Structures
1.
Amino acid sequence: MPNVMLRRSDDGQLLFYVAKKDLEETVVSVETDTDDAWGGTIELSDGSRYFIEPISPRPDFPTTLRFNRA
Amino acid sequence: MSTMTKQETEDLIQEVLEVYPEKAAKDRAKHLTANDQAVDKSSKCITSNRKSLPGVMTIRGCAYAGSRGVVWGPVKDMIHISHGPVGCGQYSRAGRRNYYVGTTGVNTFTTMNFTSDFQEKDIVFGGDKKLAKIIDEIEMLFPLNKGITVQSECPIGLIGDDIEAVSKTKAEEHGKTMVPVRCEGFRGVSQSLGHHIANDSIRDWVFPKSEGKAFEATPYDVTIIGDYNIGGDAWSSRILLEEMGLRVIAQWSGDGTLAEMENTPKAKLNLLHCYRSMNYISRYMEEKHGIPWMEYNFFGPTKIEEALRKIAERFDDKIKEGAERVIEKYRPEWQAIVDKYRPRLEGKRVMLYVGGLRPRHIIGAYEDLGMEVVGTGYEFAHNDDYDRTIKEMGNATLIYDDVTGYEFEEFVKRVKPDLIGSGIKEKYIFQKMGIPFRQMHSWDYSGPYHGYDGFAIFARDMDMTLNNPCWDAITPPWKRGSADVAEAAE
C-alpha cells in the first residue's frame, strides 16, 4: 500500500510519485475520471498498475493518496 | 584514446569487474553502464541507492553528514549540536565552505562545532540530561541564537535516548525553536537519507511554528532551495534573480536563517537547485501550500540562459523582459571568458564523480568551454537523478553509481581523461597518477561557480589546473629520452 503523491507536471500530465521507491511515472490512464469521481485502476507509463477506490468528488492535485497494487 | 564506442565501454566495464568474486561482480555490474540516450528510464540500465558492498572502498558519507553537514549545517543563526561523540562534528567542521554573513560566535554559528562529547557514562546512563544541560549552557553563552537543532550521531539511536522530549521541554522553557533530528549515521545507505530526514524535520518542527506569522508578500517572491552557498554560490545566483526583478525571500540553506525558512511557505515559486537534497520539502510545500517548484541550472552561460527564461515564463512580462535584459547584460562578459579560455581547453575530456546535482549540472559549463564529459557518476543519487543525467550525457559515455576506489582508478587508467572532478579522497591518488584534478565538492577552495560571475572563476580554475606546467614535470628527466636531457654547461 504505497503512499503516493500525485502532481501535475509542467505539461499538465499527472505524475505518480512514490518517495520510498524513487518511482516517478506519468499516469497513462485512469479508470474513472469524471468531475464527481476519480479512481479505480490506474496505469502508469512503465506498465505497472495501481488501484484506489474511486474518490468523489475528484481530489485537487497535488495530493497524497494511498494506493494498492492492482 | 578518443571516443569510445558503446561496445568498448561495455568491454571496459566487464574487464574492470573481472577481479571481483562472482557475486560481487554481479552486484557491481548493475551500478555501471554505458550511457544510451535512447533509454528513457534509468531503472532499465542502472541500479542506485543500494547498500555499498562490504569490502570495497566506497566514497559515500552517512545520514549524519547529509543532515548536519549539508541541509542543517549552513543555517547560520541556529546552533547545531552534534549530539554524540566528539569526532563526527569536529572532523567535518567547516569543511563545506558554506559562506555566510555575520559575526561568528555572536549571531552566526556555521563554522563552529557544538558537541555533547559523549563519554562511556553517557552511553551507559543515557545522554538526555547532558543534552538538557548543554542546551542551557548554549542559551547562556550564545543568547543571540535563533534556535537549536539536535543532530543525532550513531549512539543516540542505539541507546534509545529521547531527544524529542528534551527538545520539547527546552523549547518551551527558552521559547525558541528546537529541532530534534534523528539522523543517526547508520540509517540508510548514504547521506541521501540524511537529507530526507532533515527535510522532514523542517516540515515537522519549523513549519508548524511559522503558521500565521505576519509576512508582506509581493507577486515576485521566490526562494533559492538547495543552494548551499559553497564559496558564495548562492550569492552569485541570487543577484541574477534579483536583477531580473524577482525578490528572493529565502536561501536554503547556504547563508540561510531560521526566519527565511519560516517564510518559505509564503513564496510564489520555489527554485530548486539541488534536486536530490531538497526535493522532499519542495514536494511537501507544493502539496500543502500550493507553491509550485522547478529545477534550474546555473552552471555555464548556456544553461543559465535556459534557466532564466524558464523561470521568467512563470511570471508576467515585466520579469520576462528582466530576464532578457540580464541575459543581454552579461553576454559580452561571458563571451570574453569563452573567447579567452576555450582555445586553451577545447577538446579536453573530463571525468566527474561527485554528489547530488553536479555530475549532471556541470556538464553544460564544460561544454561551453569546448570540453567533453566522458564519464560521470553519483555517490548517492537515486534513479530519478539518473533519469535526468542520461539526457545530458553523450552516448556510450561511462556512468557509474557509488563507484569503488578500485573501479574509479581502473576507469581513469583506461579512459585517460584530461581532467577529473571529484572529492578530496580521490584528489591525491589522481594527482600522483599525473592527472589534473579539481576537487568539485567545495570547488577546491575556490568558487563561486554558479551564475555568470561563477562561470568566469570556473573557467579560470579549469585552465589553471589543466594547463599547469607542473604536469610536464611528472616524468623525471632521465625517463624522458635523450632529446630532452639538458647538458651541463662547461
2.
Amino acid sequence: MLVAALLAAEEAKKTVNPILPVMEEIHWAAGSFVLLWLLMRYVLLAPVARVMDEREERLRESRAEADSASSGAEDAVAAYKAQVNVARAEATGIVTAAREEAERYRATQLAEANAAIHEQREQAAAEVTAAKAAALAQLRTQIAGIAVTAASRAVQKDLVLDAQLQVIEDYVNGVNKGGSR
Amino acid sequence: MIIGALEFPPIEHVVEWPAWFAHETMFAFNKIAFINLLATVLTIVIFAVAGTKKQLVPRGVQNLAEVSVQFIRNEVIAPGIGHGGERYLPMLISMFFFLLFSNITGIIPLFNMPATARMATPLVLAVLAWIWFMGVGLKHHGLRYITGAIFPPGVPKPLYLLVTPIEFLSTFLVRPFSLAVRLFGNMLAGHILLVTFSVMCITLWGFKPLVAALPLSLFMLIALTGFEVLVAFLQAFIFTILTAVYIGGALHPEH
C-alpha cells in the first residue's frame, strides 16, 4: 500500500501541470526582459527618440517659416493691390486731365479755324466787290466809247472822245442823282 | 490520447520542452528560454540599427522603430497614463516588443510555440507590472495611494465593510493575476488549436476514407494561423496598455 502510494506520488511528480510556471523559465524570462528594459532605458531608445524629436523640431521650424513666408506673401499681395489702386487712380487722373486738355485744344483750334474762315470769307467778299466795281467801270467806258462812235457816225462829225465821255459821265451822274431822288 | 482515428499528443508534449543545456539546474535552457532570449536580441537589434540611422524620411528598420515608439506614445501612454507618462516609454516599449516576439513564434515554422503559452513569461511580466504600478503609487502618494484605493471617497461608511476587501483584492491581487492568466490562456488556447488542426491534417492525409475532409482542416489551420498573428499583436497590446492604465491609475489616482 505504501509502496503503491509512493509510486503514485512519484508518478504525480513526473506529470507536468501545464498551468504552473517552471522556475527555470521564470529565471530566463525575467533575465531577458530586465536586460532588454535596462538597455532600452539607458542605451537603445535615446538615439531613436532624439532623431524623432529633431525631426519634429525641424518640421515645427519649417512650418513656422512657411507660415512666415505665407504671411509675407500676403503682405506683398496687399502692398501690390494698394500700388495697383494708386496706379489706377493716377491713370484715371491722367486720362481725365488729358481728356480736358484735348477738349481745350479742340475748342481753341475750332475757334482759330472759324476765325480764319471768317477772315477769308470777308476777304473774298471784298475782292468780289472790287472786281464788280472794276468790271462796271470797264463796261461803262466801253459803252461810252460805243455810244460816242455811234454818235460820231450819226452826226457825221468827229466827236472828241474825252469831252463826250465827260458829258456822258455827267449825264449818268445826273441820272443817278435823279434816280436817287 | 486517441479519439477515434485521431491520436492527440498529451498536453505535456505540446507545451513542455526539454532543456538543451544546464540540465537539472536553475538555469536549464530550453526552447522557451531561447524564445525569450531571441525576443530580447531581436528588439535590441532593431533599436540598435534604427539608432544609427538619421534619415529625414525613415525607411526599413528605422521606420519600424519610430512607428513603434509613436504607437506606444499615442496609443498606450497618452490614453493610459496621460501627463508624465513619457518616462515609462522604455519599459512599455520593451514590454510590447518582448511580448510580441514571444507570442509570434507560435506561428513561425521550427518554433511553433509561443513562449507566452507557458506561465513563466506572463507571470514575470505581470509581477513586474505590479511592482511598477505599486512603486509609482507609493512614490508619488505614499501610503495614501493604498488607503485611497481601498477606501474610495464618497462611499457610506458601513459599505466599506464590503467595498474595502473587494477593492483590495481587485486592485492589488487580481490585477497581476488577470494580466498573466489572460495572456497565458489566449496563447495556450491558440497553440492547442493549431496543434489540433495540424494533427487532424496529418491524420486525414493518412486516413483515405476521410481524405476529402482534409481541405477543410487545412483551411482551418491556415485561417487560425492568420488569426494567431492578430492574437499575438493584440495580446501584446492589451498587456501593455493595461500596464499603462494601472501605472496611470497609480500616478493620477484622482482620475
